[in-house]
Design goal:
GO terms for molecular function: hydrolase activity. The chain is α/β, with parallel strands linked by helices and about 525 residues long. The chain has 19 helices and ten strands.
């Protein structure tokens, strides 16, 4: 998500489910080929290197644990939890360790195939809660009959230890910076980017923690988890950022893959600038679709001419830069929060009416509905407590994304506003800075990734044609690079695994259970 209080990343299925529940019933620098090759070699050496035997030999001690229902009418699930130990630095297996929080919902049937490991995206969203939500949504699916549903909080995230922490709740409420976009309102200074590293390190357990939370570290953890679960090969379903994690695992451990479902795909061929501009382009397209839907109603706050909707929206929200709209809790709704709230609703067409209701409120000088949408994405509780989702996303992206100079970051912001003018605050952009510019280590992912993989079985990429956050083209590219199958889903939302669509459910179940891939050109419609 491309706004200052939210990193320019995607919302995972867990966050989307929580957002839907929270709003229901409301009135309405390039890494280079050489460094990439070195990174891959390091990853391929990881499976059973010297000193890792004690980690790969773990047996998880699962104990019953309670999980919250995703919605009041959702079926209850019985879950069990455990903790997995992994080295913080895989090149120093005798050094500091991390503990990964793991949750499992046992298979409903008596003859399980094994575990289905899940990731909801982010990259900072917790997988434990996501596993419980997915098990509830798929309560009657043959998938939950044949697989144990397993979620884990990636290193630094959620209940895993050490946990990433960069800001206090009060700082988050005041608009703590989690991304450079949009520039021009309150940009990072060089001193602030240095301070960001200091306070993240102080609150997260040291600089060594900040150096070892990237996707390649998490992929190694996932292989240790696979072994600890007793699976010879990995079955995995990842949404959004989870597709990056799954693709990197496939690159590093191709012979350990049984099945990969990759939903709402990150494009492995697109570097940071290109991918983020693709996101903005997708969101502007969805904003225009939402505006066109609204225009059929006489009371539409964006007017009856969809071609003028962006200018109408700008006129409504740009004054919030100087004077926030009033809210019932006294916090007020800023320009950035208003755009965040509208963008959060773009993740599903079902949420468009809530965003429109929020825009109508702004027209009347009020901001409660859009602030609620913004808060739901951030995970803010009613008493002002924030989880570490987005702070973890910031830190993980510092290792995954290309490190930009101020010139490059400024160019990105200008390109982003050109691609998505609905989000443009109208102020001049002087100089933007990458918040990661003083991070303790260089990025470790490398672009492109997950290419030229040998020995990988068939994979299944699920891609929605109207996905505003991970455009369909990225799914096409990922399926092509992995040499796998593609299921195209016609619809207007981010991802499709938890959509409840019978066509998607049948295709995914057939692939996971029987390894039966959909035919070339297969399509579903939401």
């Amino acid at each position: 998500m491309p706004y200052r209080k939210r990193p320019a990343v995607v919302m995972g299925a867990t966050a989307l489910t929580l957002l839907l529940g929270a709003c229901a019933g409301q009135p309405v620098q390039a890494a280079g080929q050489a460094s990439q090759a070195a990174t891959r070699q390091a990853g391929q050496a990881a499976p059973s290197g010297i000193g890792l035997e004690r980690f790969y030999g773990q047996k998880l001690a699962f104990k019953p644990c309670e999980v919250p229902k995703p919605a009041p009418d959702a079926p209850a699930v019985k879950a069990e939890c455990a903790r997995l130990k992994v080295p913080l630095d895989y090149q120093n297996s005798k050094g500091e360790q991390a503990e990964i929080a793991v949750l499992r919902v046992p298979a409903r049937g008596k003859d399980p195939i094994g575990s289905l490991v899940l990731n909801p995206g982010g990259p900072g969203f917790p997988g434990t809660e996501h596993a419980a939500i997915t098990a509830a949504v798929w309560a009657k699916s043959p998938i939950t009959e044949r697989f144990h549903m397993v979620g884990f909080d990636p290193r630094g995230v959620g209940a895993s230890k050490p946990a990433l922490d960069c800001y206090t709740d009060a700082e988050r409420d005041r608009g703590a910076k989690l991304s450079s976009v949009p520039a021009g309102l309150d940009d990072w200074t060089e001193q602030e980017t240095r301070r960001l590293v200091e306070q993240c390190a102080e609150r997260s357990g040291g600089r060594q923690v900040l150096a070892h939370v990237g996707t390649r570290d998490v992929a190694r953890d996932m292989d240790v988890l696979r072994q600890a679960l007793g699976d010879r090969k990995l079955s995995f379903a990842g949404t959004s950022y989870g597709t990056r994690l799954g693709a990197v695992y496939a690159e590093m451990f191709p012979k350990k893959v049984r099945a990969l479902v990759l939903d709402g795909a990150f494009d492995p061929m697109a570097g940071t600038h290109e991918r983020r501009v693709q996101q903005f382009t997708g969101m502007q397209r969805t904003f225009e679709r939402m505006a066109a839907s609204c225009a059929t109603k006489q009371d539409c706050p964006l007017g009856t001419d969809p071609d003028r909707a962006t200018k109408v929206f700008q006129k409504l929200v740009r004054p919030l830069v100087d004077k926030p709209a009033r809210t019932s809790d006294g916090r007020g709704l800023t320009f950035e929060q208003a755009v965040e709230g509208v963008t959060a609703a773009m993740y599903s067409k079902a949420m468009w009416p809530v965003a429109i209701a929020g825009i109508t409120e702004v027209k009347a000088g009020k901001g409660d509905t859009l602030l609620k949408l913004r808060d739901s994405y951030h995970g803010r509780s009613a008493d002002g407590v924030y989880p570490n989702w987005l702070e973890a996303t910031l830190a993980i992206n510092c290792l995954d994304e290309e490190r930009h100079t101020p010139r490059q970051e400024t160019a990105l912001n200008r390109a982003a506003f050109k691609a998505a003018p609905f989000s443009d605050h109208g102020r001049p952009i002087k100089q933007a800075r990458d918040g990661c510019e003083h991070w303790p280590v260089k990025p470790t992912l490398g672009y492109p990734y997950a290419t030229d993989i040998k020995g990988l079985p068939d994979t299944l990429t699920v891609s929605v044609t109207g996905d505003p956050i991970t455009p369909h083209e990225g799914g096409v590219n990922l399926a092509k690079e992995l040499g796998g199958s593609l299921l195209t889903v016609e619809g207007e939302q981010h991802g499709a695994l938890l959509s409840g669509n019978a066509c998607v459910n049948r295709a995914v179940a057939a692939y996971l259970i029987d390894l039966d891939s959909p035919a070339d050109g297969a399509r579903c419609k939401l």
